[in-house]
TrEMBL record:
Pfam families linked to this entry: CoA_trans
Classification via Gene3D superfamilies: Glutaconate Coenzyme A-transferase
Species for this entry: Cyclobacterium lianum
Residues passing through the membrane, by range: none
InterPro entries: 3-oxoacid_CoA-transf_A, CoA_trans_fam_I, CoA_transf_BS, NagB/RpiA_transferase-like
NCBIfam families the record matches: pcaI_scoA_fam
GO molecular function, one term: CoA-transferase activity
Family note: Belongs to the 3-oxoacid CoA-transferase subunit A family.
Organism lineage string: Bacteria, Pseudomonadati, Bacteroidota, Cytophagia, Cytophagales
UniProt protein name: 3-oxoacid CoA-transferase subunit A
Key words, A-Z: Transferase
Signal peptide from the UniProt entry: none
UniProt-listed PROSITE patterns: COA_TRANSF_1
Superkingdom to which the source organism belongs: Bacteria
C-alpha cells in the first residue's frame, strides 16, 4: 500500500496558496482540523474561500484565519459566536454565502459523488431561492442547488492508518466524511496513526482512496462554544 503519512500539519498544507478553496470539517468546534488550521494561520496567504458548517469562535478554529484576514469568502450554515466575522462582514471585508445546513451537507455530498446539481424544497420562498431555477414536482416547488467541490479538504478523524483509511468518533463523524470525498486533495489529521492494515475494515468510515495525505496531530483542545450546566 502507498504510505500517505506526513510528519506534521505544516508539511501537509505546504502547497495551499492564495485564492484556494477549502473544505473544513467539523460541526461547531467538534471534529475540526485544529492542527491544519493552526498551520494555515502561520502562513502568509490570503483570499481563501472556506466552506464549513460554522465560522468558529474569535480565537479558535476558522476564527484564527479570520483574525489574520486570510478569508475572502465564507460558505457556511451558521456564523454565530464570532465577533471578528461580524465585524469584517459588516465592513464588507468578507463575502458570505449562508446555506441551510441540510442543503450544505447535500451539496458537499453531491460534489463527492459527481452529481452536478439537485432539487430541494429548502429555501423556497426565502432569499436563498433568489436567482436559482425553481421547478414543480408532484405539486411542490423545488429549487436547483449545485454541487460543492474544493481544491483541498481539511478533515479530522479519531484514528487512521498510513494508507489513509479513517475512523471517526462520536459527533466528530459529521461533515468530515462528506468533505473527504469532495476535495481534489484531502488532508486528514488523526489522533492516532497506525500502520496500514491495522484497522478492522468493517469499522472504517472513510476509505483511504479519498485521502491523499495523513498525519498525526497532538495536543488537541477539543473546545466547545458554550458550557451549559444545571443549578
Amino acid at each position: 500500500m502507498i504510505d500517505k503519512s506526513l510528519n506534521n500539519a505544516s508539511e501537509a498544507i505546504r502547497d495551499i496558496t492564495d485564492g484556494a478553496v477549502l473544505l473544513l470539517g467539523g460541526f461547531g468546534l467538534c471534529g475540526i482540523p485544529e492542527a491544519s488550521i493552526k498551520a494555515l494561520a502561520e502562513r502568509q496567504i490570503k483570499d481563501l474561500t472556506c466552506i464549513s458548517n460554522n465560522a468558529g469562535v474569535d480565537d479558535f478554529g476558522i476564527g484564527l484565519l479570520l483574525k489574520k484576514r486570510m478569508l475572502r469568502k465564507l460558505i457556511a450554515s451558521y456564523v454565530g459566536e464570532n465577533k471578528e466575522f461580524e465585524k469584517q462582514y459588516a465592513a464588507s471585508l468578507l463575502e458570505l454565502e449562508l446555506i441551510p445546513q441540510g442543503t450544505l451537507a447535500e451539496r458537499i455530498r453531491a460534489g463527492g459523488a459527481g452529481i452536478p446539481a439537485f432539487f430541494t424544497p429548502a429555501g423556497i420562498g426565502s432569499d436563498v431561492a433568489k436567482g436559482k431555477e425553481i421547478r414543480e414536482f408532484d405539486g411542490r416547488l423545488y429549487l436547483l442547488e449545485r454541487w460543492i467541490k474544493a481544491d483541498f479538504a481539511l478533515i479530522k478523524a479519531w484514528k487512521g492508518d498510513t494508507a489513509g483509511n479513517l475512523i471517526y468518533r462520536g459527533t466528530a463523524r459529521n461533515f468530515n466524511p462528506l468533505m473527504a470525498a469532495a476535495g481534489k486533495i484531502t488532508i486528514a489529521e488523526v489522533e492516532q496513526l497506525v500502520p496500514a492494515g491495522a484497522l478492522d475494515p468493517n469499522h472504517i468510515h472513510t476509505p483511504g482512496i479519498y485521502v491523499q495525505r495523513i498525519f498525526q496531530g497532538e495536543s488537541y483542545e477539543k473546545r466547545i462554544e458554550n458550557v451549559t450546566i444545571s443549578a
